[in-house]
Amino acid sequence: MAKIWVNPRAGLVLRLFLADTERCRASTQPLSL
């Protein structure tokens, strides 16, 4: 797991994944922050 944080490119992918997850969560729960 630590290798993911070492690789900047993997970090960007992880950030995009988290952003997409937040987007889905926001669409399913409009009242959530």
Characteristics:
mainly alpha, 2 helices, 33 residues, 79% helix
What's the SSE blueprint?
Blueprint: H1 2-6, H2 8-28
Tell me about this structure.
The structure is a single chain. The protein has 33 residues and is mainly α. Helices cover 79% and strands 0% of the residues. The termini are far apart. 0% of the residues are buried.
Short description, anyone?
This protein is mainly alpha-helical and 33 residues long.
Distance between the termini: 28 Å
Uncertain spans, ≥5 residues at pLDDT below 50? none
- N-to-C SSE string, H for helix and E for strand: HH
What number is the mean pLDDT?
Answer: 76
- Strand residue percentage: under 5%
Structural class, from secondary structure content?
Answer: mainly alpha
Number of E strands = 0
